[in-house]
Amino acid sequence: MTEPRFDLDIFRIIDWYKAAGVDAALDDLPVDWLARGPAAPGQGFAWPDRQHVPTDSAPNAHAPMPRMEALSVAPIKLAQKSSPSQETSSVRPQTPLAASEAETEARRIAATAPTLAALEVALRGFNGCSLKATAKNLCFYRGAETARIMLIGEAPGRDEDLEGKPFVGRAGQLLDKMLAAIGLSESDVHITNVVYWRPPGNRTPTPQEALACRPFLERQMTLVRPEIVVALGGSAAKEVLGISEGIMKLRGKWRTVQVGSNTVTSIATLHPAYLLRTPAAKQLVWSDLIQIKKKLGSV
Ligand code: URA
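# uracil complex -> structure
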C-alpha cells in the first residue's frame, strides 16, 4: 500500500479551502471554546495545552510535514455540571444573547447616548453581537459627526477590521472617488455599516447580527441627522429600506423610509466592491450619483 504523502495532501486541502472561499486561517490548532470558561476573548486567557508553532516553521512544498502526533491537542475536558451557586458566579461576559434579548439590550443602552462619542462607548461595552468575539476592532464610522448625507454599507472587511474604520480598503477608496466625482469629500459625509464588526471570512451578516446592531444604527442616524441616506449594495438596502427585492431593481429610486424614529429620504446604489469586480456597472452608479447631487442641490 502506498503511504499517504502529507506534504502533497496538505496543499491539496489548502487549495480546496481556498476554492471554497476560506481566506483566513484563524489559528494553527482547533479551538475548544468551552475550555475558556468565564474568561472573555482578549482578556488574557492562556491556552493550557497549546504548542506554539512559530511562523517560520510553516510547511513549504519541499519540507516534509511534521508527524501528525506532533500536532495533536490534549483531549477536551467536558465541563462538570455546576451547582446553581457556581453558575451565577461563572457567567461568561461574552455568552451570546438570544437575538431579541440582544436587541432589547442594545436599544436600552443606545437610546441614552447623547453624542456619537457616547454611542461609541456604549457599543464598545455591548456584547450582544457575536461578531465582536472574532473581530479585531470596532468599526464605528468615518467622516463628519453630522452630515447631510449618510452612507451605509454591509459590514467591515479585513482592512476595516485592522484599521477600526469603515470603508478604508479598496472598496472604500473607490467610494471616496465616487463621492469626489460629485464634489463630496470625507468631511461632507458620514460613512458606516449595518454591522460594526467584521464577519469572519467577510460573509454577509446574519439577520440576528444586523438586528443586534440596529438600535445603534438608528441612534446614530438620529445623532447624525442626515437629509439623505444612501444604502450601498443589496444587503444594506434590505436592512435600511426594509425591502428584499434585488439591488438591480431597488437602486436609483428615491424612497421615504422609517428607520426607528427617523423618517429619511433614501436611495440604494450598487456596492463599490461590486464595481471593482464589474466595472461595466459603473455607469448605473454614475446615474445614481447624479441623482444624489441633484437632490443635495434641491434640499
Ligand atoms: N464593504 C462594506 O460594506 N463596508 C466596509 O466598511 C468595507 C467594505
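# post-check
The longest helix spans residues 207-224.
The two ends are 77 Å apart (CA to CA).
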